[in-house]
Write a structure and sequence with these properties.
The protein has a single domain, classed as 2-Layer Sandwich (BirA Bifunctional Protein, domain 2), CATH 3.30.930. About 25% of the residues lie in helices and about 30% in strands. The protein has three helices and twelve strands. Strand 9 and strand 10 form a beta hairpin. Helix 2 packs across helix 3. The longest helix has 22 residues. The relative contact order is 0.18.
Length: about 230
Amino acid sequence: MTMLGSGGSAGLAPGGGAVEWLVSRAPVDYETALRFMERRVEAILAGAAPEAVWLLEHPPIYTCGTSARDADLLDAARFPVYRTGRGGRITYHGPGQRVAYVMLDLKRRGADVRAFVCALESWLIATLASFGIAARRSDGKVGVWVDTAAGGEAKIAALGVRVRRWVSFHGVALNVDPDLTHFTGIVPCGLAGSAVTSMRAEGVAVGMAEVDEALRAHFMRAFSRAIAAGGGSG
């Protein structure tokens, strides 16, 4: 696994600690990422490592959260399938999708999981707005959505988190320029009939480095606002 430190923080977390930013340029195997997150969560709990946000891509894989239903896996032979401990149903990860694993001490941030999920959504919405994409929440659905020309909506980013002793891991997946046909092997997040889109499909051709810069720029502001509001997610 190749991991590059960012050489700094995006700002001070509540309590004065810095959030460490990590970036992997080459795709990271899903199980390798899980092992890293497990170790980092334990280190944060022990006070041996700072909070962290890890930006990466995965090779193509379908991952099943704790609420996943077998019926939502339409083509199990297409890509590897991994059953994981994060919340949510089934989703796709692959090249062209920016995954951000967020490992934070929520006790220092209000100890409110709903507010944490709201913060992640706000972060993605602000990031997309900086590229001219009007994204939003959708009532009754976790994640970030955009309106379609046909009058419907399409999902542009997914969320799936886990919390252990108030330290978070897993996180968000933003569709920058993945192969959208790869989503046809599943019912994404268990939402039958829902469309999936990407930044490129919405007319924005942008590189991962630019996306990373925007994610980092908007992280602390969006997170602080959402935590202060104490809102939930749709």
